[in-house]
Every structure is written in C-alpha cells, then in structure tokens.
C-alpha cells in the first residue's frame, strides 16, 4: 500500500497540471464512490479466493414487463454506466435489465490478490442472477464483456436464451501474434495512462477521428481514476485482466455455443490486445473486424451477423440507432 501511495503522488505531481486544465476530468476513487450511475446501484457480497468483495449491479425494471430479462456486460475500459441509453430503451420495450460491474471494474471491489479468469467472472455474474431469482436471461456482451458473455454461455447454457456479442475482443488468439508481457510490466504500462493517452487510444480504435460530446463521459471516467491516489489499485487489476484476456482465449470454443447468437460488428474496429508487441508484419493482420465477424459467424452454429459499416469499437455509443435496430430486431 505504501508503494501504491508513493507512485500515486508522483503521478499526480507529473500529470495534474495538463489534465486538470480540462474541467470535465476530476479525480475518482477506486470504487467511483462520488460518481452517480444512471440507475440505483445494488451490491452482492462475495467471499471469493480468500477476499471479501462487493460486486455492484443495476437492476432496471420496466413499467410494463414482457417477461424477458437481458443482462448487459461491459468492456475492459468501461463499466455498467455506459449502457444507460440501451437500458432505458430496453426497459421501455418491457425488458428487465441487469447491468453488473465485474470485480475489478466500476463500483465493484478492486482486489490486489485475485486470480482473474473468465470462468470466475462468469460465476460471480451468475451469483447476481441467483440472488435475484432469475432463471433465464438474454446476454449481451461488449468488448471484453463479449469474452465474459461467451464463457458465461458455455458455462451456464441452461440460463441463456440468446447471446449477443457487440464488437467482442477475443475473436482471435492474441498469443499467436503478440509476445507475452508479464503482469509487472503490464502494471507499469497501466500506470502511465493519462486522459491524453486514453483519448488517443479511443480516437484510434473507437471513433472516426471526430470527437463528440457523447464520447466525453466515458473518457472522463477512466481518466479520473488516473488523477486519484487510488489509481495504482485500479492499474493493478487492469494489468491482471489484460493478462486474463491474453492467456484465456475463447475463440476455440465458439463452435460449442448452442443458443441463438447475434454478432453486431462495427467493421472499422481494429482493436487487438498486444498489437504493439507483435512483429510489424503481423500488426496489420490483427483486429480485422470486417473479417473476424464473418469468420466467427461461421464458427457459431446458426448465428447471425449484423455488420455496421464504418463503425468502430463502440457501436452503442458511436452509432446507437444502427446498433439498436440490430439488437431489437433479434430479441423482440
């Protein structure tokens, strides 16, 4: 903890002047305790791997229920808050909407000693459904949430009615392209993040080089962490989850998915874990979503593919109407 605090103080001294020039970015603690989510936040208590943990979730109930429940799983650089518009529209159509924050993310606990695995995250997620007495769900996963959703579906197929994967990472095995980076090096890399580096990354992979006001809140959330003394806790879990993504591919098991599945793919996306560590001749071959979407659709029996031309990694933020039309047509 002492090491964490010293590193955090150094980061604030080095980075606060340029970043705080943006009135939109403010320091946020590890649990986002002073950041208000769009819906009421509930918690379940987990005793997991000798840790006492709190896992946050939102339970959005419709005014007129259609009898269906959908669970929205966030990506690595996000939390459940970015599903606000999606959840409101789903609720208006009669769906009950469950939105977890995975352990290590958002308002959930940030354990230091934790073996992150997609199997563990899937089990944690199921415990929320068990507590709420929900037997069947439609599962939608974005980015890293797509890998969680895939593992959840394979692990608990009896609970999944339909599966939607929105620009999921893990459509390819990153180990076959990029060299391994140990957790200590990954942690040091995470500590270097700032509002500027996050924005540069998002402009490169998420959007079309035109920054819009609706993108800012999702930058502010992760950038705010970098300004707080808690940031080393967040950075450590980010390093652990990067290691999980690299070492636990799900792409070899798509053939085992038996539930109706939809892939929503923004074809401009080029996101790939470890691309900067891959040989130059392989980097251009990584994260080719216009090809990966078609390949994965063939691997998942009976699945459907909705390609969103000239859309990046975040369809439900960048091109919401096109995302919504594809989603609702599949689940209505």
Provide the fold topology.
Elements: H1 2-20, E1 41-48, E2 51-60, E3 69-73, H2 84-92, E4 96-100, H3 118-131, E5 137-142, H4 144-155, E6 160-166, H5 183-191, H6 195-205, H7 216-226, H8 231-247, E7 261-266, H9 280-283, H10 289-299, E8 304-308, H11 315-318, H12 320-331
Parallel strand pairs: 3-4, 3-5, 5-6, 6-7, 7-8
Antiparallel strand pairs: 1-2, 2-4
Helix pairs in contact: 3-4, 5-8, 6-7
Q: Estimate percent helicity.
A: 40-55%
Fraction of residues in β-strands: 15-25%
Number of strands: 8
Give the radius of gyration. Answer: 19 Å
- Taking the alpha carbons of the first and last residues, their distance comes to 49 Å
What's the domain count? 1
In DSSP terms (H or I, runs of 4 or more residues), the helix count works out at: 12
- Mind telling me the CATH superfamily name? Alpha/Beta hydrolase fold, catalytic domain
Largest sheet: 8 strands, mixed
Q: Which regions contain 5 or more consecutive residues with pLDDT less than 50?
A: 1-22
Secondary-structure element sequence?
HEEEHEHEHEHHHHEHHEHH
Based on CA inertia axes, which overall geometry fits?
globular
Q: Going across the biggest sheet, name each strand in turn.
A: 1-2-4-3-5-6-7-8
CATH topology: Rossmann fold
Class inferred from helices and paired strands: alpha/beta
- Indicate the CATH architecture: 3-Layer(aba) Sandwich
- The averaged pLDDT comes out at 93
Q: Given this structure, which CATH class is correct?
A: Alpha Beta
């Amino acid at each position: 903890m002492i090491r964490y605090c010293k590193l955090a103080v150094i980061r604030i001294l080095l980075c606060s002047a340029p970043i705080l020039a943006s009135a939109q970015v403010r320091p946020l603690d590890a649990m986002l305790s002073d950041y208000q989510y769009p819906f009421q936040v509930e918690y379940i208590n987990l005793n997991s791997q000798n840790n006492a943990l709190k896992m946050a979730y939102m339970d959005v109930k419709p005014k007129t229920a259609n009898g269906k429940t959908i669970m929205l799983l966030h990506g690595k650089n996000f939390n459940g808050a970015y599903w606000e518009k999606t959840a409101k529209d789903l609720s208006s159509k009669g769906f009950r909407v469950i939105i977890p924050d995975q352990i290590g993310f958002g308002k959930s606990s940030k354990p230091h000693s934790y073996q992150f695995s997609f199997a563990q995250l899937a089990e944690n997620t199921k415990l929320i459904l068990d507590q709420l007495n929900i037997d069947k769900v439609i599962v939608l996963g974005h980015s890293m949430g797509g890998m969680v959703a895939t593992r959840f579906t394979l692990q608990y197929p009896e609970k999944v009615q339909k599966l939607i994967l929105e620009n999921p990472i893990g459509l390819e095995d990153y180990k076959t392209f990029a060299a391994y980076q140990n957790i200590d090096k990954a942690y040091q890399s995470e500590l270097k993040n700032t509002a500027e580096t996050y924005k540069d990354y998002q402009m490169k992979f998420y959007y079309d080089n035109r920054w819009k006001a609706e993108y800012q809140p999702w930058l502010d959330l992760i950038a705010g962490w970098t300004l707080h003394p808690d940031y080393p806790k967040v950075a450590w879990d980010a390093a652990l989850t990067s290691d999980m993504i690299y070492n636990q591919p799900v792409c070899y098991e798509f053939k085992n998915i038996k539930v109706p599945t939809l892939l929503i793919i923004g074809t401009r996306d080029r996101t790939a874990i470890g691309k900067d560590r891959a040989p130059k001749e392989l980097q251009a071959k990584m994260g080719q979503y216009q090809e990966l979407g078609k390949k994965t659709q063939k691997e998942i029996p009976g699945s459907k593919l909705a390609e969103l031309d000239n859309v990046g990694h975040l369809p439900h933020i960048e091109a919401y109407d096109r995302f919504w039309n594809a989603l609702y047509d599949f689940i209505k």
